[in-house]
Amino acid sequence: MNAIILSAIFGIVMMLSSAFVKNTKAYKSIALVGLILLLLANICETYSHAWLNIPTFDMLEFSRFGLYFNTLAIACTILFSAFSQREIERVGRYIGEYFALIFFVLCGIFILSSYNNLLMLFIGIEIMSIPLYILTGARKENLKSNEASLKYFLMGSFSTGILLMGIALVYGGTGDFALVHHGQDISTSIAGAMNKRMSFLDVAGMILILTGMCFKVSAAPFHFWAPDIYDGSPSVFTSFMATIVKAGAFIAFIRLFAIREEETTILENAIIGVDWKMLFSIIIVATLLFGNITAIFQQSVKRMLAYSSIAQAGFMLFSLLSLNDTAKEGLLLYVVAYSVATIGLFGILAKMKDYTLAGYNGMAKSHPTLAFANAIFLLSLSGIPLTIGFFAKYYMLMAVIQTGGYMWVAIVGVIFAVISVFYYFRVIWSMYFKEGTVELKYPVTKGFKILAVVMALIIILLGAFPQVILNFLYF
Amino acid sequence: MGITAIVFWILSALTLFSAIMVLVSKNPVHSVLWLVATFFSISGHYIMLNAQFLAIVNVIVYAGAIMVLFLFVIMLMNLNTKTEMKKNLWMKLGGVISGGMLLWILISVVRTYAEQSKGHPKIASVNTGEIGLIKNLGHVLFTQYALPFELCSVLFLSAMVGAVVIGKKN
Amino acid sequence: MLSSHIMAAAPVAAQHASSYLPIALQIVFAIGFVALMIFVSALLGPKRKTNDKLANFTSGITTHGNARQPMAIKYFLIAILFVLFDVEVIFFYPYAVNFKSLSWTGFYEILLFVGLFLIGFVYIIKKRALKWED
Fold first, then answer.
1. Second-level CATH architecture of C2-126
2. Taking CA atoms, what residue in B is nearest to A197?
3. Where does residue A32 rank: exposed (0-12), middle (13-18), buried (19+ CB within 10 A)?
4. Are the C-beta atoms of A473 and A396 separated by less than 8 Å?
5. Which of A146, A147, C36, C106 is the most buried (most CB within 10 A)?
6. CB of A292 within 8 A of CB of A245?
7. CA distance B69 to chain C (A)
8. How many CA atoms lie less than 13 Å away from A292 in the CB half-sphere?
9. Does ipTM come in above 0.95?
10. Cβ-Cβ contacts under 8 Å, C123 against chain A
11. Domain covering B1-78: architecture
């Protein structure tokens, strides 16, 4: 609760400061202070209790997992805004507003990590998405940014409509918006006849919700929006959208199916013939296929990263298939691994003039530190051992194997992980083994380089000791 | 067939007809006007379900304000050039198949639900329900659903910021 | 005496959709009357078509240019802000009906809601979003 309230307050503070504070340099400082306070408030809630005791009527439930996810999300946002602050200032005139919108997005994510009611799911999704539509179109004079914003808005609102339709059907099937009723599952709260079984309305509703959520996390076959929108929006906001926001959507997705796991197991749906696990497997394989295969053919690194984000979403979806403790731990590792690496890559990308693969030629000679950091980020994304990315993928595969019966999905995952190495290494290859000069659009400061190296070191250190992250989940 | 059933069927036919007209109208302004008709007939349905507040809000906000926004958007476009959208046959086919499958699911849902819930409470309570009355709705909104209600204002604030960021001249 | 009578009767009357019958009748009658009048006047009135009569009436000024021009986004900005505040006002209605029973809690809730909107309003004013000329 602390985080939700504070993030809303800081969003308002940023709004007001953009209206009253004339000094444009001050915004990022205010935002950073706000983010750090947010982090502290969230940690405070994790270890003791909320500051305000607001009756939520079971609408929100703050679990250790959700709160810890919040902490990670805030930490990644701090990293993001420290690393890309100059780029945010370059997007346009409304710097204070951009930060305000980022705070509002965070507010939505915090709701999504703790919702216990389909109504809150909807509000969380909306609070998370609407600021993003605006951030996508923040570069107003750029036609591509406008197009991306409009596309994102139309498709996003359409998918939210599908989600809402699903929620309505689930409400019709169960008679309640709540996911858990005083520890009891919702389906038991309706009159005895259909105890524990999902009714047809319920199943249809869950399928529609699944569709809407798949769109939000860019899982195939609802991934088609992602490349255009990630490519068109300003690079800074792409990195925010592709990492922290996507992780937030994932948490919501996992939370929904984890709470309703009992009903979505096969036995209880036998009468209707919906095999949810098979549905998830198909989505996973399709996502991995589309993301990885299309990423191979991309010449623009930004576009390649957009497709790779779809592929990575496929890996994160493994946690949806298994829904056990390993999957939860793996998801947290994945959020950290993927977010840090992608924020780093996009941060460096935003400084460059040429986004194509050729633009990276010879980076190792002219900018050795940046090339080194880039290489580490790419290695982590492809899941090479000794980086955190390896453990993230390892935990995900482990979780699927533990579930049993879905070995083939894990094998497909490994195959695609190997394929992904190809296109990540192409960038490393151009940086280190090709001749050329890298032209930077904006100068790189010393602090930026130091931060890039620090992020690379984080990836390596966590790769050596992944337990550091997971320990906080329990202690 | 009582008067309620007759009104229901008339309203349903009206809703479906105007919804289809929204899609098939060539002129976007006509589409918007048909959409207004759709909203009005849906409001009629709400009144039938005794959800008066929803009916009024639907008329005021959707048929009134949002439709004005729609008209503004249409006027922002350039309507002089008659650009016929390129229609891909495969795209159409895909749309028909996926839409048809959704329709199939929804129809079977309603049918099986009606069978399954024999002797159970009705799906919709026409004309008698009291949940939709303004007094009850307001009571629930300001007690049980107070938190989502307040969070909605965050949504509105971000919409305001967005309107300024996108709509204001640089 | 009379007012208490109405207040006592109002909730009962509002609980059944059949109480909308007079309203429905009135709507039907109003629409029917207008349609009938238009139809009858078209039927009975004399028809003398001249070019001047068929031209668009623009307050006596000769028409020029094309009406189908993209218009300024300023209108849209005002309209969307109007919708936001319109929705805010809508929420007062269920609050007002339950004003007594919600007591102070409800008051604080609506105060918070309005306060947040007020902040938004201050922001809009400060950003000169409602200024027509700029």
1. Up-down Bundle (1.20)
2. B116
3. middle
4. no
5. C106
6. no
7. 6
8. 22
9. no
10. 15-16, 18-19
11. Up-down Bundle (1.20)
